[in-house]
Design a protein that fits this description.
The structure is a homodimer of 245-residue chains. With 245 residues, chain A is an alpha+beta fold. Chain A has 2 domains: 5-176, Nucleoside Triphosphate Pyrophosphohydrolase (Alpha-Beta Complex); 183-243, Winged helix-like DNA-binding domain superfamily/Winged helix DNA-binding domain (Arc Repressor Mutant, subunit A), CATH 1.10.10.10. In chain A, 31% of the residues lie in helices and 27% in strands. Chain A contains 7 helices and 10 strands. In chain A, the strands form 2 sheets. In chain A, strands 1, 2, 3, 4, 5, 6 and 7 form a 7-stranded mixed sheet that branches. In chain A, β2 (26-34) and β3 (40-42) form a beta hairpin. The two termini of chain A are 36 Å apart.
């Protein structure tokens, strides 16, 4: 970030992204190790340019961190507590650490910017994890996919943001058929069911689930997926593009 | 607003409230006539003090405009288009009108503040319309209850904000049992049904609706409401407080 933070961005307003991926029957979230926060974990985030919409800012941040264009994303809540501020007594170490760093890189202005109060707009995004090439942002040391069941201690209210994002995902997964965005292009019905079971943390009767999926008329049947005995090989499907929410 | 706007409030961030009321089988919204906008209509709104949470700011604005404490409110979306700005070419008349006004009341700083870009946090609120005593804010001339079906031309994207709020209300009315907040303390089942039919713009079979309401086990039966023949008088109910969402 150059010295022109206040010229370039809307002050006191940030974006945090809960990027969901799905792998090995686990729902995962992309989190960032934040050296300046004493090595604590945080959500990938950023600021909003004065000349771009808040949605465009979220898309820009997501594209930068994942290397993907056209990611499915949705704002789900703002987090506006008055104590969302790094410059609070219990975060004094962070301001100090920032000041210890190369002053060319982090001017007093940038330190003032970063350590002020931020109202955060929470976005969740759904990606095909196999396509993501993570790239750290300016304040990330590195990014890591972490199972939703093993989230480490997070900065600020970032744990709470993940909880709200998961709630929003559960509400909308069924209604808006966005779950397919977490899967590779082709999949078996069983894989769809496993995804749903993972997100909702419960099991569904296989026949009911299969019938329900078929009744939605959004899947296109492809060829069989041969991995073992051909008589038990399941069909592969893909999501019909025109049915996208 | 005194000259200290930038000291007191978070810049570029505002709140707009879609305050729903229900009267004469109509869903209504409280809107404000905004003299400075050339007499156009807008949603009651305000800014966020640097020392208060965004939710607290919304409560403060709502309390001021309605005279009610403890209003049910919920944030539902932010509106962050880069062209949410009064100081755009097609709003030049507004800046000019502001400048024409008493300069004690509106300093250049305030004019710069008001006419800049704002990211808006949308809240919807549900009130018992019979209890509201409206009070104009600093930039309202007067407030008026307006049927959702006859909303006049609104400033900026305020019409769109109402549309999103109505969508959020419909989504949550059933799930969170918040509809009772639009009714007086006691009501008949038929009145509840009329409310639901008004919000969803469709009719429900009376027996199904009644059974569904009773099955929820959130209503307390009181005495009969005698207005005509006593043999057909319906029972009055009230919402059990402990069931509030």
């Amino acid at each position: 970030m150059k010295k022109s933070a206040y010229d370039q961005y809307i002050p006191h307003l940030s974006i945090d992204c809960v990027i969901f991926g799905y792998e090995n029957k686990e729902l995962k979230v992309l989190i960032s190790n934040y050296r300046l926060g004493g090595g604590s974990w945080s959500l990938p985030g950023g600021y909003i340019k004065k000349t771009e919409s808040v949605d465009a800012a979220a898309s820009r941040v997501l594209k930068h961190r994942t290397g993907l264009e056209d990611i499915y994303l949705e704002q789900f809540r703002i987090f506006g507590d008055e104590n969302r501020i790094v410059n609070s007594p219990n975060n004094a170490h962070l301001s100090n650490e920032l000041r210890k760093l190369d002053s060319d890189r982090y001017s007093e202005e940038v330190i003032e910017w970063i350590t002020g109060r931020f109202v955060c707009v929470g976005y969740y995004a759904l990606v095909d994890i196999s396509k993501v090439q993570t790239q750290p942002g300016e304040f990330d040391d590195y990014l890591e996919w972490c199972s939703i069941n093993h989230i480490p201690a997070m900065m600020h209210d970032h744990r709470e943001i993940i909880t709200y994002a998961l709630e929003a995902l559960r509400e909308r997964l069924d209604k808006k058929l966005i779950g397919f965005k977490l899967l590779p292009e082709t999949f078996t019905i069983k894989e769809v069911q496993q995804l749903y079971e993972t997100v909702y943390e419960k099991s569904f009767p296989i026949n009911n689930f299969q019938k329900k999926m078929m009744d939605l008329n959004v899947l296109e049947k492809l060829h069989k997926k041969y991995t073992g005995a051909s008589n038990t090989a399941p069909y592969l499907y893909k999501f019909k593009k025109e049915s996208v929410a």
